[in-house]
Design a protein that fits this description.
Blueprint (H helix, E strand, L loop, with lengths): L1 H16 L9 H16 L7 E7 L2 E8 L2 E9 L3 E6 L6 E5 L1 E3 L4 E4 L12 E4 L4 H10 L3 H14 L9 H6 L1
Antiparallel strand pairs: 1-2, 2-3, 3-4, 4-5, 6-7, 7-8
Length: 172
Amino acid sequence: MRHITGLLFALLLTLTLALPAQATEFMDMDICLGRKLIARILCKDELEVNYVSRVHENVYLFSVFYANKEARFFVGVYNDMIRIQGKDFQTTTRSIPYHFDSAAKCSVVDYAVPECLNTERLVCCSEKTIEEELDEKFWDRPIPDLLEEDLQRALQGDNATQPEDTTDGAAQ
């Protein structure tokens, strides 16, 4: 009976979390947000929170040692809201707004728990593609270096004019 109740609860949670919102497309960032928020809610170090599995398209399961036993938490990450529900501690339910910066592929959460001393904002960024990293590395260089490199490419390219050979004309 207990397993059926747990299964029904998980199914109900999954259905209610997935109703109106769309999933985010950055799973690594969602897992980071879930881990950091659960740690903040429980006043624990984020290294104590373990990612267990992906339950649904945008719902993840985490575990942490809490209240003298292992506790599991569901985390649903949507366009502008994160919902956390304790599997064993159902009174631990939070809906937390967050901001996603699409240019930097980072999410920022301003969330503090009165019992915890740590009140800094939580930031999680998605891993960048190789092309994005190269582009970022390129634009992080000083402008004179960029101009010098562009000049060198122009001088070595097909459109570069070759210096005239004046020694042949003078010898004749």
